[in-house]
Amino acid sequence: MTRKIVLSGARPTGDVHLGNYFGALHNWVKLQDQYDCHFFIADWHALTTGYADTHALHEHTISLIADFLAVGLDPEKSVLFLQSEVPEHAELFLLFAMNTPLSWLERCPTYKDQINQLKEKDLTTYGFLGYPCLQAADILAYKADFVPVGEDQVPHLELTREIARRFNYLYQAPVFPEPQPLLTAAKVLPGTDGRKMSKSYGNTISFADDPETVRQKVMNMVTDPARIRKTDPGHPDVCSVFAFHKIFSPDEVESIRSQCEGGQIGCVACKKQCAAKVAEFHTPIHEKRTELLKNPDHLVEIIKDGSAKARALAARTMAEARAAVRIGL
User: Fold this and answer.
1) Which range is least confidently modeled, 33-47, 57-71, 117-131, 190-204?
2) Which long-range contacts (CB under 8 A, 24 or more apart) does 18-22 make?
């Protein structure tokens, strides 16, 4: 039987960190065995906020495919491709941009949030306002059945569904399905300073970090601010290190909680234990990533092969879309 199509992507804006992995990539790896998966590097999307500085875009693209492979995405199981190598995305984006109401784009939650959060950048551009049309093109070019998202991202996918419905209605042709959210349980890791793990905060642990850097970052993590001495009762639920233990030491987490609350383990010892567990998970991925990056030509070949497969499917969809719009010869 034909498997359902799943599509998702990531912007090449820097090294993949543990927050990215537990928020999305570890689910992508599992989905490979159940669905016809298409995972792409969204370099055009990177331009929506980073259009003014593209000097590192190629480097980030190569490092991102290395991260994809190192964590377990398999080009034999999934189509791994680069958005800009499939120009059908841009053509479909143009068609959607022609008929998507401006009010739909202006009400998008991410548009308003990022305008407020990224005040140092000029985001008053057509590309940034219209990125939901590009996102819809990414998804609908492959007639994806499912898009893996967290609950907070469902409204963004609904806009893609609205764009598909409007296209089908305007041109009286059922070209596009309405992709459904594939709700995935994401594990949330805080950054080393207790805030959300984010490149913009400089509080990440990435797979590019060498083992000693990882150890130092864990040892410098923010813990319970109310705990002064080792024997003071701790409050693990406000401690970033304990949040890491929940992910990396699941069999020991209740014992660690008890010792912390009872003042039987100090923060330094707790961090050392955490660092060892993080290293056990992180080091093999870091080493595989490092090895992959020694042969960038091979990584480019993987991207090009995957992009050719993706383009063949996207081209069929575009032929249907052009016929529905009655554009071209």
Assistant:
1) 117-131
2) 18/189, 18/197, 18/204, 18/205, 18/206, 18/278, 18/282, 19/188, 19/189, 19/191, 19/196, 19/197, 19/198, 19/204, 21/71, 21/207, 22/186, 22/187, 22/188, 22/189, 22/247
Task: Find out whether 42 and 11 touch, Cβ atoms under 8 Å.
Answer: yes
62-102 residue pLDDT tens: 999 999 999 999 999 999 999 999 999 999 999 999 999 99
Helices and strands, counts by H and E, the chain: 15, 5
Distance set, CA 67 to CA 31, 149, 216, 299 (Å): 17, 20, 22, 11
Helix (H) or strand (E) holding 327, with range, is: none
Catalytic positions: 121, 196, 199
The identity of residue 33, as a single letter, is: D
Pinpoint the alpha helices (H) of 86-210. Answer: 88-99, 102-106, 109-117, 126-129, 131-140, 154-170
At 266, give phi and psi (nearest 5°).
-85, 165
Only one residue has tokens 């359902």, namely 4
